UniProtKB/TrEMBL annotation:
Stretches assigned to the Amino acid transporter transmembrane domain: 78-349
Pfam families, per the entry: Aa_trans
Protein name: Amino acid transporter transmembrane domain-containing protein
Keywords: Amino-acid transport, Auxin signaling pathway, Membrane, Symport, Transmembrane, Transmembrane helix, Transport
Phylogenetic lineage: Eukaryota, Viridiplantae, Streptophyta, Embryophyta, Tracheophyta
Length: 359
């Protein structure tokens, strides 16, 4: 009973003064549970309490956890809004955005814009939820920097691992395979461009397997960086190049003008089932363009946090800036690409091929 009274006395001092109502109750419960775990770890022989280093002049407190201290994602928590924007842009803009005009060729102007807007709003809402869940009690609570940790906290140790490990493994493996194929193909194409398209290029080229091996070795070398913050420069390069090619992709069709015979009629299958499949395929292209939230928790895990300046405020500022830029990339690609090529873009897979094949 004495321990419970101590928790009741000490808990309010750790909570933000602005918390009210259900939020205050949730924070009290979380802080009380944290205090109970600390007392249990103190009573256990050889156990050590969680330690915070408050020597930083900005007021942030950094976790000193034996397990988190050496893991690449959480080893460094000195990120900021700028680095989070670089990471979010680099992971949020991909070649999938070139399929947006293809989706519009099936959905048409009205439903295409509606579906793209709804997908963008849903993307913002879900990322806001993840940002809030990353740290339940700012400064003093556990930080869930990985989907596995969040799943265990939500569903328990057994069910959480069952629901999280398999999806994370096959999504990570699938992403790696896709990136290796795309990266190796891009390197081979770049080599041919540099070579000038001469007949000797085929003899000098490494072939598909050779380029796969080269790209894999480069990825392994990059993975030797100590933590996620240390590759912020690479994320900056990726963000700049992604914004650049997105801008070129929607600016070129406008500058070249529309070719003859462009139609904006919706291209759906003749039968009802074929039409439904085409609509679902178009919606899937729009969803695929946003690429999900595969790195949101990890990116927020690189940011410092305290009760006065929680990581969610820094992260949400970075999310706002990055998604304004993402919207300025995706919407012009979809609208300008469909305006320039209409239904012709569907027969040529993407707006990039439409630009290449249009005289």
């Amino acid at each position: 009973m004495g321990e419970i009274r101590d928790i009741e006395k000490s808990t309010p001092r750790n909570l933000p003064s602005t918390a009210t109502g259900p939020e205050l109750s949730l924070q009290v419960i979380s802080a009380a549970a944290s205090s109970m775990r600390e007392m249990e770890s103190t009573d256990a022989p050889g156990a050590s309490m969680e330690v915070y280093d408050s020597s930083d002049s900005s007021g942030f407190r950094f976790e000193v956890n034996p397990q988190e201290a050496w893991l690449p994602l959480t080893e460094s928590r000195n990120g900021n809004t700028v680095t989070s924007v670089f990471h979010l842009l680099s992971s949020g803009i991909g070649i999938q955005s070139l399929l947006l005009p293809v989706a519009f060729s099936t959905l048409g102007w009205a439903w295409g814009i509606i579906c793209l807007s709804l997908a963008f709003i849903w993307q913002l809402y879900t990322i806001w939820v993840l940002v809030q869940l990353h740290e339940s009690v700012p400064g003093i609570g556990t930080r869930y920097s990985r989907y596995l940790q969040l799943a265990i906290a939500a569903f328990g140790p057994k069910l959480g691992k069952l629901l999280a490990i398999f999806p994370v493994m096959y999504l990570s493996g699938g992403s790696c395979v896709m990136l290796i194929i795309r990266g190796a193909g891009t390197m081979e194409l770049f080599f041919k461009v540099i070579c000038g398209g001469e007949a000797t290029c085929e003899d000098k080229s490494l072939g598909g397997a050779g380029w796969f091996l080269v790209f894999t070795c480069m990825a392994i070398a990059l993975a030797q960086r100590p933590n996620l913050n240390s590759i912020a420069g690479f994320s900056f390069i990726g963000a700049v190049t992604a914004i650049a090619y997105c801008t070129l992709i929607w600016a070129l069709p406008i500058s070249k003008g529309r070719p003859a015979g462009v139609s904006y009629d919706s291209l759906q299958g003749k039968s009802d089932m074929s039409g439904i499949c085409d609509i679902l395929n178009a919606v899937g292209m729009i969803v695929l363009a946003f690429r999900g939230h595969n790195l949101v928790l990890e990116i927020q895990g690189t940011l410092p946090s305290s009760s006065k300046r929680p990581s969610k405020k820094i992260m949400w500022r970075g999310v706002t800036l990055s998604y304004i830029i993402i919207a300025l990339c995706f919407f012009p690609i979809a609208i300008a690409g469909f305006w320039a090529y209409g239904n012709k873009v569907k027969a040529q897979i993407s707006v990039l091929q439409s630009i290449h094949r249009t005289p």
